[in-house]
Specification:
Largest sheet: none
Mean pLDDT: 75
Distance between the termini: 43 Å
Strand content: under 5%
Order of helices and strands: HHHHH
Low-confidence stretches: 29-35
Shape: globular
């Protein structure tokens, strides 16, 4: 028996999205990120540190809410502190989505991507 088209395309679209996001992360460049390096305008160091802490807090709050194992939490904290600003910004934006819709399939996928990003960093 053949599955309806909706049931066949949803897994394909989900994996396509996951692979697209992972390829952007691993390539280190976003198509809409604009100029990088010296041409990009960065906030002063003090403000940048505040943004970094805020993004770190967003990710940690979601990780601690979703992860029950204390050893895993500790390992993720260590890995988060070693992440680049760009990777942390991506993880924080995904965690905002998770915080909005905690019980949806999209938030589960977003958390899987955040976990992969942390593990691969």
């Amino acid at each position: 028996m053949r599955l309806p088209i909706k049931q066949r395309t949803l897994p394909l679209l989900t994996w396509t999205g996951v692979l697209l996001i992972l390829s952007i992360v691993l390539a280190g460049e976003s198509p809409a990120s604009g100029p990088s390096g010296p041409a990009a305008s960065l906030p002063p160091r003090a403000e940048q540190a505040v943004y970094h802490r805020a993004e770190l807090w967003k990710v940690l709050s979601v990780v601690e809410h979703r992860t029950k194992n204390e050893k895993v939490r500790e390992r993720m904290r260590d890995k988060l502190s070693a992440m680049s600003d760009r990777q942390l910004r991506l993880a924080a934006s995904l965690c905002e989505r998770i915080a909005r819709d905690d019980d949806s399939a999209g938030s589960d996928i977003a958390f899987s991507i955040v976990a992969a990003l942390i593990v691969l960093s």
